[in-house]
Amino acid sequence: MANVSTVYALALVLLNYILQVHGTGCPVVECWFVQEKPGRGGGFPAAMSQEKSLMYVRTDPDSTEAESQQKPQLTSTPQESTMLLTQPAVVKWAAPLTSSAQSPIYLQADWFSASLQGLDGQLTLSSVMRAPKGTNEPNVILSVFSTSTSIRSRLGVPVVLDCGFWMDASSPLSGMGFAVEWRYQFRGEGRLVVAYDGKGDRLAETTEEGAELDIPALHQTGNASLLLEEAQVRHTGTYICTVYLPYLLAQVAIDLEIEEPPSLSISPSPLPISYPGQTLSVQCEASGFAPLSLELSWEFVGADGGVQSLGEGGMSGHRQASDGTFSQSSRLTLDLGKLDLGRGGEVTCVAVHPGGTRRASTTLNIIGVSGPSIEDSMAMVAVALGLYGVIKLFSWMFGTSGPSDSDSKDKKDK
Ligand SMILES: *[C@@H]1O[C@H](CO)[C@@H](O)[C@H](O)[C@H]1NC(C)=O
């Protein structure tokens, strides 16, 4: 009655993997084994049993000896759970793996799946384990792992999404070929990025450009890393690396965030020479940033070095460019009648963004404030020179009209 491709064991292994490496020792692993009794159907949880478990950590993947073991503590919070079904994969690139349509007798065992997550995000691992019937001692058959579960990248640079797999060479499944698939997921939407049938050495057709696998490395070392040629805003999202063996699969997910801080420009720059009582308007434009998470504010640094906050200014709405980056601006109104900015200083626009903080400044000169500065003196000299010129002009005009009047008088007198 029990078909080989039906559920063998409806079992969950819940693990909490805490990476606390004490010197060269092994990490402490807290482990729960949760078993769900099969037979209810409908996907609702049936009766569950929960027991503490031992987990063996092999430090050398090729050795068969468990080199260290840790006593589990029953105080952990389960992080991940997976239900394992041994059945043929439906995707095209993995279908050749089970094309014989005869399931090996080897599958008649209890199959478990475990997901482990390093608390610092430096490791994620998903394993499929097999325990011969009635033994309760599972061995890892397939492991898929990544050393970076959360990656940040600037725009325009190459990105490596790390994924690797290991399979038990003594398992009959390991000789039957494998397939690798990378899917992209973002806000409920997904697409296939690359898929490779390792048995037939064929890449599936996808619409994705600039995404590659290193096929020789895949076969030689199980390095299934995805290489993105040039990071773009549209690459932000979750990437799922899935490795298929016949009737089995394991996968890990990696988050990629594209973070590009803004470029700032202030206008007008330089600011016009101002006088007390005047109202000035300054604009700061932040462009080319992603994601859309920006705080713009203004600061003033006086001639004496004192810093004053000028507030946020009036924020504009955001615009999105065709490359997916955003721009947004802030307009600051400086009422020199109300603010005491002395003789001026630096007006700075400060942009706080997850990709970094950026600043842009422009110089503000205020003239006519008590106690002349060098700039004031120069301005006054300029004004004085101008006045002198005007007086000179007038005196020349009167000077020439004077003699002409006297000339005419002279003519009348004659
Ligand atoms: C896997 O390949 C990528 C790209 O070639 C490389 O950056 C990475 O270091 C490799 N990982 C391992 C574990 O060799």
UniProtKB/TrEMBL annotation:
GO cellular component, one term: membrane
Domain Ig-like: 138-243, 262-365
Keywords: Immunoglobulin domain, Signal
Protein name as it appears in the record: Ig-like domain-containing protein
Biased composition (Polar residues): 66-79
InterPro entries xref list: Ig-like_dom, Ig-like_dom_sf, Ig-like_fold, Ig_sub, Ig_V-set, Immune_Resp_Modulators, Tapasin
UniProt-listed GO biological process terms: antigen processing and presentation of endogenous peptide antigen via MHC class I
Segment forming the signal sequence: 1-23
Superkingdom assignment: Eukaryota
Region spans: Disordered: 60-79
PROSITE patterns xrefs: IG_LIKE (PS50835)
